[in-house]
Amino acid sequence: MDKTDVQLYFLSDSLREMVTMLSLDDKCPWVTVFSLLQKKAESLLCSGCSLDELERLSSAIIILYTIESGFADYAPLEFNRRTGGYYYIIGAENFSDVSWKIYSIAEEMLNDSEDALIVNSY
Predict the structure, then answer these.
(1) pTM reported for the whole predicted model
(2) CB 69 within 8 A of CB 63
(3) What is d(CA 111, CA 7) in angstroms, rounded to the nearest whole number?
(4) Contact criterion met (CB below 8 Å) for 66 and 59
(5) pLDDT one-digit tens code per residue, 1-12
(6) Contact, 111 vs 63, CB < 8 A?
(7) Which residues contact 28 (CB under 8 A, 6 or more apart)?
(8) For the chain, how are helix, strand and coil distributed in percent, rounded to 5?
């Protein structure tokens, strides 16, 4: 396995975990988006991919984390009437860690694909 395959494997696995957590919130608007990204990562892992495809996938993920997308303000939380506070839905306690992992892998993949394009252009 080369570095890209390892990145795609961990990205696909993290996206699958994210979809599972998001699915716990029956009002979550992001389940479909992350499901599609997970399927795309899995497809690229199974069939191979070009630098352009990696860049598109990575960019699509990174764009989700901008303030404008709305996902940056989302968390699978529920209100606890007894305490008056919000808490992660049971099963989504690792949301922040998985979210950060997805972003980090996407950013690394994007940087690697840009570096490869620069090297290949010389």
Answers:
(1) 0.89
(2) yes
(3) 12
(4) no
(5) 688 889 999 999
(6) no
(7) 22, 74, 76
(8) 70, 5, 25
